[in-house]
Design brief:
alpha/beta; 6-stranded mixed β-sheet; 4 helices
Length: 128
């Protein structure tokens, strides 16, 4: 983030960041999968459940993304999650029986009980 803040943007410029965020309640389960297969954060591309290394928790998002820059949030982040959206989480990876023609919009994914979705953050470089 420091390099993006320093070199990419002019003062007043906006960085648009999209990433994956953990939305479930079983944080310990996420950590167990990471420890078992990924050696988070050192080896992000190893193991069957490597996707779990690429999902930020709220604390990690704040520590590694937001606190690592001098840019400020354009809008406050709303971390709230609608329970109805979680109930409709798509099982990942999709199996052979999944009907791709269902025309269902999904917001969250579920892999072995680990729930995650996407988050979009807009940061503005401060005027100097």
């Amino acid at each position: 983030m420091y390099e993006r803040d320093r070199a990419w943007l002019k003062p007043g410029g906006v960085a648009s960041i999209a990433t994956e965020i953990f939305v479930g309640t079983e944080l310990e389960k996420l950590h167990r999968y990471r420890e078992k297969d990924s050696q988070f954060p050192c080896n992000l591309l190893r193991g069957h459940y490597k996707i779990f290394s690429e999902i930020f928790t709220r604390d990690e998002l704040e520590r590694y993304l937001l606190a690592s820059t001098n840019m400020k949030l354009l809008y406050p982040i709303d971390f709230s999650v609608d329970i109805n959206d979680l109930a409709g989480a798509v099982k990942f990876p999709l199996n052979k029986e999944y009907n791709y023609n269902q025309n269902i919009t999904h917001i969250f994914l579920d892999m072995n009980g680990i729930l995650w979705g996407s988050i979009h953050i807009a940061l503005i470089k401060q005027l100097t």
